[in-house]
Design goal:
By secondary structure, the protein is mainly beta. The protein has one domain: C2 domain (Immunoglobulin-like). The chain contains one helix and nine strands, in the order αβββββββββ. The strands form two sheets. Strands 3, 4, 7, 8 and 9 form a five-stranded antiparallel β-sheet that branches. β3 and β4 form a beta hairpin. The longest helix is centred in the first third of the chain and has 17 residues. It is elongated and about 75 Å long. The N and C termini lie far apart (78 Å). 17% of the residues are buried.
Amino acid sequence: MKRNLSMFIFMFVVLAYCGVAFAQVSQVTARSEGYTLVANSAKFTFNGSVYTDKAGPIQYRWNRSDNANSTIRTLSASGPGWYQVEATTWSLGTKWSGQTFSITLEVLHPNNITSAPVSFSAP
């Protein structure tokens, strides 16, 4: 009898855990806010948004075409909906004038999804 009760409790816990669905990020957008001239550099600013179906932590980073990616950051979603991520900047000096670059916003957790690249040219 004790064994049957233990098995029942074990199965209940397993089924309860399996029924818990984790949040999913289904959309990621990135956009350029343009640039400002600072001394001999153009400082570009980028913003992004993520859409999640549930509350929970969302880890993300900015990936640059020069491979100088941002650190992994975390935002806490309080429920389903759109959330703004922390903006990032990228400064390019005059030696990069006329060259094209790109940046993406990548969600790493709870699932992996990346925005379309935002392309821009240094003035």
